[in-house]
Description:
The protein is mostly helical and about 325 residues long.
Amino acid sequence: xxxxxxxxxxxxxxxxxxxxxxxxxxxxxxxxxxxxxxxxxxxxxxxxxxxxxxxxxxxxxxxxxxxxxxxxxxxxxxxxxxxxxxxxxxxxxxxxxxxxxxxxxxxxxxxxxxxxxxxxxxxxxxxxxxxxxxxxxxxxxxxxxxxxxxxxxxxxxxxxxxxxxxxxxxxxxxxxxxxxxxxxxxxxxxxxxxxxxxxxxxxxxxxxxxxxxxxxxxxxxxxxxxxxxxxxxxxxxxxxxxxxxxxxxxxxxxxxxxxxxxxxxxxxxxxxxxxxxxxxxxxxxxxxxxxxxxxxxxxxxxxxxxxxxxxxxxxxxxxxxxxxxxxxxxxxxxx
Length: 335
C-alpha cells in the first residue's frame, strides 16, 4: 500500500477507536444499576458510599469521568476492576491469549472446511452429491453457533463423554508454562501431551464457532468460483489440456480467493464477538466469559476495558485483511 493510504487507514482506525470509547463510556453509565450499590455491605453509611464513589471517580460529572479515563488509557492504564479488585489490563492480559487461541483454531477449522466444501461442490455442480453438499451447507449456515455449542455439550459431553466440556486444560497437569498461550508455548517447548489435552478442551467450542463461518465461506467461495469457471482464461486452460483438478485449484480458486478472503476477515471479527456465548457455555476462561461476568457485576472499568480490547482487535483484523487483499490483488494494490 502507498504510505498515504496507510496513514489514512491509521487515522481512520484511531477515529473509530475514539468513537468506540465514547459510545461504550456513555452506554455503561446510562444503563440502570449502580455498581457501588453492589459492592457496599448492608448498613453502610452515606460517608462510606461517598468515599467509594470518589475512589472510582463516579462522583465527577460524566465528561470529567471520560476525560480521566481517556488520559489513563493513553498512559496504558485501564483502571481497577470494581468486582475483582485488580488492574483491568492485567486481568485482560491473562484471559486474552485463551480467546485468541480459540478464535484462531476456529478460523483454521472454518477455512479448511469451507474451502473443501466449495471445491467439492464446484467440482460436483449439478449432481446429486453436489446438491446434498449445498443442502448440508445451508443447514450449517442456518444454525447459530450457540445451538451447535449446546448440541455438542449434550451429545459429545454428556451422552457420549468423548471430549471435556469445561475449562481450558486438565487442572492436574502442571506444564510449568510462563505465558498464557498454552498451545504456542506448549508446542515450542515440546510438551505435546499437554498440547493434546488443551486441544481436546478447545475442539468443541472451536467447532461450534467454526461451523457457521465455514458455511458462509463455502457458499461465497463456491458462487465466486462458479463465476470464474465461465471466464475466457478457464477456457484457454482447458484448451491447453490442463486437468480439471489443476484448473480448479490453480486458476479458479486463486482468482476467487480475494472476495472470500475479505468476507472471512469480516466474519472473523464476528467470530471473536461470538466467543462471549460459546465461552460461557463451555466455561472457557477467555475474555468472552469475562465480559458476561463484568456485565452481571456492573464492573464499569472492566466493561470499558473489554469493549476497547474487542474494538482494537476488530480494527487490526480489518486492516490486516485489507493489506492482504491488496497484496493478492494487484488491481486493489495499484488503486
